[in-house]
Specification:
- 54% of the residues lie in helices and 13% in strands.
- By secondary structure, the protein is of the alpha+beta class.
- A two-stranded antiparallel sheet has the order 1-2.
- A hairpin with a 2-residue loop joins β1 and β2.
- The longest helix has 14 residues.
- It starts with 8 loop residues before the first helix and ends in a 7-residue tail after the last helix.
């Protein structure tokens, strides 16, 4: 509801269709209606946003340095744990 009145069904369907076309939602037919579900988890979407931001940074090293400098100790420990588990890539 918005300001005391219900949102129109057509408005909801327009938004859902737009999100589907942009790749944020997947849909499948269920009888005469559509069933929607997210295309990615919140964590996957957040990671995609972080990747996009890093790719658009002028100096990726500096961007990473600033990002890491702002981390809490718990976030820093979590990052270290993930990096330890990650298989190493071979240099190209």
């Amino acid at each position: 509801m918005t300001r005391g009145r219900p949102v129109a069904y057509t408005t909801v369907m327009t938004v859902m269709d737009t999100l589907h076309r942009k790749g944020f939602l997947q849909r499948e037919r269920t009888g005469r209606a559509w069933s929607y579900r997210p295309s990615a988890t919140r964590e996957e979407y957040t990671a995609r946003l972080m990747r996009d931001a890093l790719e658009n940074a002028g100096d990726q090293r500096q961007a990473l340095a600033h990002f890491v400098a702002g981390m809490t100790e718990a976030e820093s420990q979590a990052l270290r744990a993930v990096l330890r588990r990650r298989p190493r890539r071979r240099a190209r």
